[in-house]
Amino acid sequence: MVESEDEGIWTELLATAEEEDKERKSKSSQVEEAKNVDNTPWLRQVGWLKLFKGKDMNELVELARFPGPDEENLRLVAASVQRIIAGTCMDGVFDIYERNWRLLAYWLNSIKKNEPASKPFRVFYKDTTVPNYAKSWARMICMCIRSRDSDDHGIELTEKQLQLVWEIRQSLEFDVVNEAQLDGLVLELSTALIQHSDWEDQKSALLYYLGLLGWDKVRGIWLIPNDYMPHLAAIQCCMRPLGVRNCNPTSSTVKLQGTLY
Q1: Phi-psi category of 258—alpha, beta or left, where left has phi over 0 and alpha has psi -120 to 50?
Q2: pLDDT per residue over 148-183, tens digit each?
Q3: Helix, strand, or coil (residue 115)
Q4: What is the DSSP letter of 218?
Q5: Which of 215, 24, 257, 233 is nearest to 109 (CA)?
């Protein structure tokens, strides 16, 4: 079928419009130095405009996406995060109550270094809540692994974190993945990301990821505080059980005498 002259013109116009639309969306996700009128108190506080200056946010958030069906190795990593956080780590939190160390639950829920919270850390959630929170943590681990495939994103890892990422990638090369070994490496990397010192030469990958969570790719805008807080709550909920796992071995590992009230 021969295309008429009019049809050819319309096809060309549509192609041009699509190209211009792609260019417009690309520019809208490019972070530029904000003018005072655009730099709200919220954005000044979080510092995202400075952190991501010159970067295309739509490209960066792809580094932190949950692994798709064709990313088998990263899906194994995501499954490992689920086992660690929703399984082992939450078991550690329940173990606090089993040992009657209830005071620790108040410290676990505190946002202050030298003062316990007025309420204990929650241990009972909907069945889907903690697994959904763990998905957010899995996205960060996947971000760290993907970051080694390019170097123009600004994600920085310490020597220890880089070593753990390399070991995770190596462990996934076997025909049969050792889940226990993988879980141990993912737990170590998670701990290293949490314990990242402000005095390190490299910037925190955890804080970098929290910045990515502030970008709404669909709308091409930064999230306002009310919309951002659920993302932050998910990360905090993962960090606390991970901390328990590192400082409080479960009763199946060690038997201690006495109680803590």
Answers
A1: left
A2: 998 889 999 999 999 999 999 999 988 889 999 999
A3: strand
A4: T
A5: 233
